[in-house]
Amino acid sequence: MALPILPVIGAVTEIANKFIPDKGKRDEFQHDLMRAAGNRKSALTKGLMAIGLAEAQGTPYQRNWRPTLMYASTGLIIYLAAIAPIIQITTGLDLITPTQASFATVPEELWWVLGVGLGVFGAGRSIEKGVKAWANGNGTGNGK
Questions:
Q1: Would you say residue 1 lies in a domain?
Q2: Chain-wide mean pLDDT for the chain?
Q3: What is the pTM (predicted TM-score) of this model?
Q4: Cα separation of 107 and 116, whole Å?
Q5: What is the total count of domains within the chain?
Q6: How confident is the model at residue 71 (pLDDT cuts 50, 70, 90)?
Q7: Among 26, 23, 46, which Cα is nearest to 34's?
Q8: What is the rounded distance in angstroms from the CA atom of residue 94 to the CA atom of residue 33?
Q9: N- to C-terminal Cα separation, the chain
Q10: Domain span holding position 26
């Protein structure tokens, strides 16, 4: 798992190079900075593993919320993109307009929550598999 803070550490190190003239102290500072980042990464990994474990040991609703959300969202997209237009073409019954009108009443913030949730699902699943692979010593990412 890559550390998103590495560019920040690089920038801090460059600034430190300007303000710490002693090479030994600069190296010590950089070492301490990298150790602190490593400790954060370790804490983050442990936290992600604890979340995954708690979810896996939870109720079926807790274990299956992400796939259920994905299935429901995919079903809605299939309905709007394929099923409703086919029904409209074959029967003349317009199902798309009332559905879109009802979606227009949903606050925009809720759509953002849904979009972010689906994005987090994909990222969370990838992180979960990566953490499992790392914990098992398997570098392939297929941590089943």
A1: yes
A2: 79
A3: 0.44
A4: 15
A5: 1
A6: confident
A7: 26
A8: 62
A9: 17
A10: 1-57
Dist. CA 114–CA 103, nearest whole Å: 13
H or E stretch including 93? none
**If you ran DSSP here, which 8-state letter would residue 81 be given?**
I
Look at the chain and count its residues.
144
As a whole number, mean pLDDT of residues 48-71 equals: 80
Q: Predicted confidence band at 129 (pLDDT cuts at 50, 70, 90)?
A: confident
Sort 131 into a burial class: Cβ within 10 Å, 0-12 / 13-18 / 19+: buried
Contacts (Cβ under 8 Å, ≥6 apart) of 70: 118, 121
* pLDDT for 91: 93
Token pair in block for residue 46 = 């442990």
User: What percent of the chain is predicted at pLDDT more than 90?
Assistant: 7
In a domain, 41, yes or no: yes
The answer to whether residue 12 sits within a structural domain is: yes
- Contact between 143 and 132 (Cβ < 8 Å): yes
Contact 80, 88 (CB under 8 A): no
Residue 88 within a domain: no
